[in-house]
Amino acid sequence: MSRQANRGTESKKMSSELFTLTYGALVTQLCKDYENDEDVNKQLDKIVFSHFLPRGYNIGVRLIEDFLARSNVGRCHDFRETADVIAKVAFKMYLGITPSITNWSPAGDEFSLILENNPLVDFVELPDNHSSLIYSNLLCGVLRGALEMVQMAVEAKFVQDTLKGDGVTEIRMRFIRRIEDNLPAGEE
Amino acid sequence: MADAALFEFLHTEMVAELWAHHSDPGPGVSAGSRGGEEARAAPLGSAGGGSTGQKMSLSVLEGMGFRVGQALGERLPQETLAFREELDVLKFLCKDLWVAVFQKQMDSLRTNHQGTYVLQDNSFPLLIRMASGLQYLEEAPKFLAFTCGLLRGTLSTLGIKSLVTASVASLPTCE
């Protein structure tokens, strides 16, 4: 790492480290909290896992407003456009990375986001006893929550993770259905 | 580079998560008077958490902040490690650290020259979205614990043992 004399980048770098470290502290804390003597790790990871999806979801629900307000992105007409916006605009804005989009299913309702480097795991080593922990699961929750707010039900899950020794980190996105607006009764 | 909004949302979720997790009433909940440092009323959202649970989550949040502060301290620009005076360190916290974490400088720094410092932020970013005035006053400590730890952790990396407390007289100002 070369140190830039520039204060601005310094503080930008610091704020991203702040996020990464804070997230790490949270995962660590939860792992501690749920570690009963009897708990097998599978169970533990499941709990941490099930805690982060809704948390990420809540973040996504709020983040989407921030995102729409700042990015001037209009409505997407198809899932491909959505994929582009997620990878090129959203990830860039919030995490400073641009994942690549691959593995479209023939029907065009599934694709993969390939993250060369996942900023969430900058300082992380998974201990052996947590080998099944899906560390960055928060991201899936964020994606799901944010897309739900723009009327898309999607499923997001990690299928590859550099923490587990895979070459890249891969998030698989599957479009489930479009959520219909519920018009209040009496309105056309 | 992670966006600032991201940290803010994560922090909110963190408080909520730990609150939900620890707010089951601990044993020996007394209705006696408690210090001004902790929330004085059970948070509305929780199922009437006992004071033990609340104390615990506050200290858990503070501990997490401490870890993060330590790690941030280790990553500071090299020249900051050559601080000689306590006051320089505190000035650094007010300026650089605060800018890095909250994109603004601390509004004022006062000291009694006996090792007590008061850092005041008139519009603390983690409180600014909540309310201005007294409406959610008893919720505020939850949102300050992490930051107290953050300061304490950074100071400890710079070789200073400290005790950091926060008080809010009226949102979004905090000391």
UniProtKB/TrEMBL annotation, chain A:
Indicate whether Transferase appears among the record's keywords.
no
- A Pfam match: TRAPP
Taxonomically, the superkingdom here is: Eukaryota
Instruction: Give the UniProt subcellular location, in the record's own words.
Output: Endoplasmic reticulum; Golgi apparatus, cis-Golgi network
Entry's Gene3D superfamilies? Trafficking protein particle complex subunit 3
Where do the coiled-coil regions begin and end?
A: none
- Swiss-Prot/TrEMBL keywords: Endoplasmic reticulum, ER-Golgi transport, Golgi apparatus, Lipoprotein, Palmitate, Transport
Query: What do the Gene Ontology cellular component annotations say?
Result: cytosol; endoplasmic reticulum; Golgi membrane; TRAPP complex
Question: Does Cell membrane show up as a keyword for this record?
Answer: no
Assembly, per entry? Homodimer. Component of the multisubunit transport protein particle (TRAPP) complex, which includes at least TRAPPC2, TRAPPC2L, TRAPPC3, TRAPPC3L, TRAPPC4, TRAPPC5, TRAPPC8, TRAPPC9, TRAPPC10, TRAPPC11 and TRAPPC12. Heterodimer with TRAPPC6A. The heterodimer TRAPPC3-TRAPPC6A interacts with TRAPPC2L. Heterodimer with TRAPPC6b. The heterodimer TRAPPC6B-TRAPPC3 interacts with TRAPPC1 likely providing a core for TRAPP complex formation.
Function of this protein? May play a role in vesicular transport from endoplasmic reticulum to Golgi.
Q: Which family does it belong to?
A: Belongs to the TRAPP small subunits family. BET3 subfamily.
The protein, known as: Trafficking protein particle complex subunit
Gene source species: Ailuropoda melanoleuca
Q: Which gene encodes it?
A: TRAPPC3
UniProtKB/TrEMBL annotation, chain B:
- Quick check: keyword Phosphoprotein in the entry? yes
| Subcellular location(s) per record | Endoplasmic reticulum; Golgi apparatus, cis-Golgi network
Family, similarity comment: Belongs to the TRAPP small subunits family. BET3 subfamily.
One of the Pfam families matching this protein, by short name: TRAPP
What are the BP-aspect GO terms?
Answer: endoplasmic reticulum to Golgi vesicle-mediated transport
What name is this protein filed under? Answer: Trafficking protein particle complex subunit 6A
The keyword Ribonucleoprotein belongs to this UniProt entry's keyword annotation: no
GO CC entries: cis-Golgi network; endoplasmic reticulum; trans-Golgi network; TRAPP complex
Quaternary structure, from the entry: Part of the multisubunit transport protein particle (TRAPP) complex. Heterodimer with TRAPPC3. The heterodimer TRAPPC3-TRAPPC6A interacts with TRAPPC2L. Interacts with TRAPPC2L.
Q: What are the protein's UniProt keywords? A: Endoplasmic reticulum, ER-Golgi transport, Golgi apparatus, Phosphoprotein, Transport
For this UniProt entry, what is the primary localization, expressed as one broad class? endoplasmic reticulum
- Function of the molecule: May play a role in vesicular transport during the biogenesis of melanosomes.
Annotated region (Disordered), positions in chain: 25-53
Task: Spell out the CDD domains in the cross-references.
Answer: TRAPPC6A_Trs33
